[in-house]
Design brief:
This protein is mainly α and 197 residues long. The protein has eight helices and no strands. It has helices at residues 2-14, 16-27, 32-63, 68-87, 108-113, 116-128, 133-152, 154-193.
Length: 197
């Protein structure tokens, strides 16, 4: 169950429903027969980035001499900020037009799927996870697979849910992330202050 919980957290942070509009806008200049191939390529780039940060991100943080609790509290704050942005979206929205028509790494692989928030959460998990390391890798692949499944169906989901439906799903995701972030903050503040749960 812990693997599933971590996978859900990573899935929520990658925000696939919020990224549907970005995928549709970025791929609209790509010929219809290449769209699926380009989207899959970008999703594989995103998976590579997520696994890279999961593997080496801890070395960055341990090199800075940060404690496990401080990393977890920082991760909780980051999650809280992400959640607020999901609930109260900013007007910038989609990341603008792409020169050349076909996206390559930016903006779909990063910052859409493997964005700063997802990479920061992975580094936090690597330094705070009590179980086996392979559990984190399985959780990342599970979360990525669910995200990829949704984003590869972006055009269909946009037609099916509509703009209001997508906004509702994104805001629900934000509410779930707020609960997870507050729980993370409370757990680690208790640990720092040596309080009994």
């Amino acid at each position: 169950m812990e693997i599933l919980g971590i996978a859900v957290l990573i899935f929520l942070v990658t925000d696939p429903f919020g990224n549907i509009a970005i995928f549709i806008a970025a791929l609209k200049g790509v010929s219809p027969e290449r769209r699926l191939r380009v989207a899959l390529r970008e999703l594989l780039f995103a998976l590579a980035l997520l696994l890279l940060f999961l593997t080496f991100g801890d070395k960055i943080l341990s090199g800075l001499g940060l404690s496990r609790e401080s990393i977890a509290i920082a991760g909780g704050i980051i999650l809280f900020i992400i959640a607020l942005r999901l609930i109260f979206p900013r007007p910038e929205g989609v990341l603008g037009d792409l020169p050349g028509g076909e996206p390559m790494l930016v903006p779909l692989a990063t910052p859409a799927v493997a964005g700063p928030s997802a990479l920061a959460v992975l580094m936090t998990l690597r330094n705070t996870h009590q179980g086996e390391l392979w559990e984190l890798y399985v959780a990342v692949v599970l979360a990525w697979a669910c995200t990829a499944l949704i984003l590869l169906q972006a055009a269909f989901l946009q037609r099916f849910l509509g703009d209001r439906g997508l906004m509702a799903v994104e805001r629900l995701t934000g509410m779930l992330l707020i609960m997870l972030s507050v729980d993370m903050l409370l757990d680690n503040l208790q640990s720092v202050l040596h309080l009994n749960p």
